[in-house]
Amino acid sequence: MKILVNTLTGQQEVIEVGEGGGYFDETRVLWDERIDGSLPEITLGGMVRSGTTLTFDAALFATVTVNPTEYQRQRSLEYPAIADYLDGIVKSDTAQVQAYIDACLAVKAKYPKPE
């Protein structure tokens, strides 16, 4: 079973629990499948409970602090292969090296480091 909670760090998290399990602070539970039924489609960080439904709150989502390692994970998935850079260096191909640098800078701009 799944429980959607507001964690102590201000993040939202889906936690798997067994039949007898629960979350240590029930006031932080937004959705409990054992009580509320199947967890609907959600966007972590922006969900609020309104009666018996969950709704997305864009203003809340905009205030959520990004996990400091999440941007690193996202960047690592999109950075070009280092072999492209090394190949350009070995061949003295400045255009290839610059293309690699530009691609890296574009990824950094797409996933900025949290402040």
> Please, how many helices?
5
Integer-rounded radius of gyration: 21 Å
Strands of the widest sheet, in order across it, are: 2-1-3
Average per-residue pLDDT, rounded, comes to: 87
Query: SS-based structural class?
Result: alpha+beta
What distance separates the N and C termini? 35 Å
What is the domain tally?
2
- According to DSSP, the number of beta strands is 5
What is the 3D form? elongated
- Order of helical and strand elements: EEEHEEHHHH
Low-confidence stretches: none
The main β sheet shows up as: 3 strands, antiparallel
> Into which percentage range does the β-strand content fall?
15-25%
Q: Estimate percent helicity.
A: 25-40%
Describe the structure.
The protein is an alpha+beta fold. It folds into 2 domains: 62 residues, no CATH class; 41 residues. It contains 5 helices and 5 strands; from the N terminus they run E-E-E-H-E-E-H-H-H-H. The longest helix is centred in the C-terminal third of the chain and has 17 residues. The two termini are 35 Å apart. The mean pLDDT is 87.
List keywords for this structure.
115 residues, alpha+beta, 2 domains, elongated
Helices and strands, with pairings:
Blueprint: E1 2-6, E2 12-16, E3 29-32, H1 33-36, E4 47-50, E5 53-56, H2 58-63, H3 70-78, H4 82-90, H5 94-110
Antiparallel strand pairs: 1-2, 1-3, 4-5
